[in-house]
Design brief:
Length: 540
């Protein structure tokens, strides 16, 4: 019977009280696997591709963690009350499903709660589980269901056996039902990237500076992964650098003798698949490419939206006398003379080829022997911010983002125009007045990027987001075009699955024992009526 046609039957009330739209599934099905597989949609890395759980269908009674028995129940948890111990309790008791309820605004959540969840999130991603796990955004109706379920669960835990039996027979409950189809692999899914360039002034063998940022986000629930800092901030800085240098390259007097190649890569959270294929196409499958000729260095932008520190991550410390070393020196100069409140350092980490996942995007270039580094406010690639659904717009400090953009722009300009060798003062600011960094534009771009989920599973070559990104790059750059990555059919490095979003219906129901109790009462009533009628007939 359709949900809107359900009617009471024999005293057992079954009517829909809520249709939770867009319950965002985080673990009921493998949303994607990167050679690692996804069990219950949490990421489980293994060397062999083994499909994880594909079923997301749910039809169980709701409980909260206060209940003693959670087996085959849909366990509801609010973020403010969530803990890893409670989550494990539900899994140990073989819960039918787990629903984690998120507040409408992450900014309203205490920071200690946000930090705690961000610390737990990687453990959830690494844990193999067959229990479907959902995330839903809280509203009044969902909160009402949670509170009623919590009250019922708490009363069962504190009452006597007789009270529990009576409460079980008379109380209302909620049946949580999803009707989504079984997840299946999406064949021929494309991961798109966008490239654009500014050609330098001079001959054909000009050195090339490559500026790269991946645009996709990552988290336990793809439809909730907005990735404001990681890596919305990187794309924001890339677009602002494109705007600034396009103006400089417009006039012959300020047209530098360097090619600038901008690349917004896809699949960054999947071991930088977009960058990997782009390098293969440019270095292995073509005779003429800016990446083949004379690459000065590759600058990767990652998580630049907050904090008072900047770190230049390198796989190999740059040698003195190289352009990479000159850029490092200019960064140190700009920070020390113009932004002394910023802590700057170089972080050296060798590439570990034994790991399934690379640490930073520059390692993709370093493997192909191209000089590269990543600039970020994060000191470690293991920071949980890089893969969290808590990475929202509210966590971005626009002033810090503007400052970091200026530091990078100033240092890059001093390198390609050789200003230090020409005697330019260390404290001379280049981007001022009409050429200043536009904080309002950075804010607008960040608002746009963080207003939508950007998980790689959600963005194809025809998506509105990608078309807008391509348009923005086309305003400032030349030869803007897309590059696409498709998984190998015989040995796929990544597999995406459908059913990323589920609709969950909550029905108010009476327990089965209520029907039995009602049947006994009716039978007793009919028995008493029958006896009364028989006595009346005997008297007549």
């Amino acid at each position: 019977m359709p949900a809107d046609c359900a009617t009471p039957f024999f005293g057992s009330e079954t009517r829909p009280v809520l249709r939770v739209l867009e319950v965002l599934q985080a673990s009921a099905s493998p949303l994607c696997a990167y050679k690692p597989r996804i069990k219950g949609c949490f990421w489980v890395f293994s060397r062999d591709f083994i499909p994880g759980t594909r079923s997301a269908v749910l039809n169980t009674e709701a409980r909260t963690v206060e209940a003693d028995v959670l087996s085959r129940r849909c366990v509801m948890m609010r973020l403010v009350d969530f803990s890893y111990e409670q989550y494990q309790k539900a899994l140990r008791q073989s819960a039918g499903a787990v629903v984690i309820i998120l507040p409408p605004s992450i900014s309203s959540v205490p920071q200690d709660v946000v930090r705690q969840f961000m610390e737990i999130e990687p453990e959830m991603l690494a844990m193999e589980t067959i229990v479907p796990v959902y995330f839903a955004v809280e509203d009044e109706e969902l909160l009402s269901i949670y509170e009623q379920t919590r009250a019922a669960s708490a009363s069962q835990g504190s009452a006597s056996a007789a009270e529990v039996l009576l409460h079980t027979a008379t109380a209302n409950g909620f049946q949580m039902v999803t009707s989504g189809a079984q997840s299946k692999a999406i064949n021929d899914w494309l991961i798109p990237s966008v490239e654009g360039r500014l050609t330098g002034l001079g001959g054909e063998d000009l050195p090339t500076v490559v500026i790269v940022a991946h645009y996709d986000s990552f988290g336990v629930a793809p439809w909730l992964s907005h990735g404001a800092d990681s890596n919305g901030s990187g794309i924001s800085v890339l677009l602002e650098l494109a705007r600034l240098f396009s103006r400089l390259y417009t006039y012959r007097r300020t047209h530098a003798g360097y090619n600038l190649l901008f690349f917004a890569s896809g699949g960054g959270k999947f071991n930088y698949q977009g960058t990997k294929r782009w390098l293969e196409d440019n270095l292995d499958h073509t005779d003429s490419s800016l990446l083949q000729d004379n690459v000065a260095f590759v600058l990767c932008l990652d998580t630049l939206g907050r904090g008072n520190s900047l770190h230049l991550h390198v796989s190999k410390p740059p040698k003195e006398g190289t352009l990479q070393h000159a850029f490092l020196r200019e960064l140190e100069t700009v920070v020390a003379s113009q932004f002394p409140e910023v802590k700057f350092s170089m972080v050296h980490k060798k590439i570990n080829l034994a790991e399934d996942m690379l640490a930073w995007e520059h390692e993709r270039f370093a493997i192909r022997r191209l000089p590269a580094f990543t600039i970020s406010h994060l000191e470690s690639h293991r920071d949980s911010l890089r893969s969290s659904i808590m990475d929202r717009r509210a966590r971005i400090d626009t002033k810090a983002l503007t400052r970091n953009t200026q530091i990078i722009a100033e240092a890059l300009t001093r390198v390609i125009y050789n200003l230090t060798e020409k005697g330019a003062p260390a404290d001379m600011q280049i981007f001022t007045d009409q050429m200043q960094i536009q904080q309002e534009q950075l804010e607008s771009v960040m608002d746009w990027l963080s207003s939508q989920p950007r998980a790689a599973q959600l963005i194809d070559k025809d998506s509105t987001f990608l078309n807008t990104l391509e348009y923005c790059m086309g305003r400032y750059l030349k030869d803007v075009k897309q590059h696409h990555v498709k998984a190998d059919k015989r040995d796929p490095e990544f597999v995406f699955y459908d059913q990323l979003k589920q609709v969950m219906n909550a029905y108010r129901v009476k327990p089965a024992i209520f029907d039995l109790l009602l049947a006994v009462c009716i039978a007793a009533y009919l028995g008493v009526a029958y006896v009364a009628v028989q006595k009346e007939q005997n008297c007549i």
